[in-house]
Amino acid sequence: MKLKGRVLKYGDDINTDVIFPGRYTYKNLSPEEMASHAMEDLDPDFSRKVKPGDIIFAGKNFGMGSSREQAVLALKYSGIAAIVAKSFARIYYRNCINAGLPAIELPSAVEAVREGDEVEIDLEGGRIITPAGTFSFPPFPPRVREILTAGGLIPYTRKRLGLS
After folding, report:
1. pLDDT of 119-159, one tens digit each?
2. Is the dihedral of CA 54, 60, 65, 69 positive or negative?
3. Which residues form the domain of 97?
4. Is 7 helix (H, G, I), strand (E, B) or coil?
5. Contact assessment for residue 134 and residue 127, using Cβ atoms and an 8 Å cutoff
6. CATH assignment at residue 89
7. How many domains does the chain have?
């Protein structure tokens, strides 16, 4: 599975309240409405500038804070294809995989890219190709790749059980 997209770059300690503001947590929002509120407190132009296939590159501890899934889903519904960070909050990382959104820890790539760079991620080969060079990461295990390819844990499970 290969992804190509434009870099959107953010710093350290981006918490779930900034990714998806807590004031919307208990509202019954459509995917489009969730996407419209993604990152609005950190980057008010995010919903207007994000394009399908864009890839977030961020600093350390991305997704710290509460464990709510909306902070992953809002980015996925915005069209974000993957997140590359220096490190992730543990629960946020797992929520990304469960939602079918690749999350890759690769500090050297984060340091190398610039906002707006075009990059390619090879999930099977464990490579990120950037204008500054190629960076390697351990490829996802086969089961995780299957979950990502299926679009998340629920579609993967339905497929495995013959329910889809």
Report:
1. 999 999 999 999 999 999 999 999 999 999 999 999 999 99
2. positive
3. 2-139
4. strand
5. yes
6. 3.20.19.10
7. 1
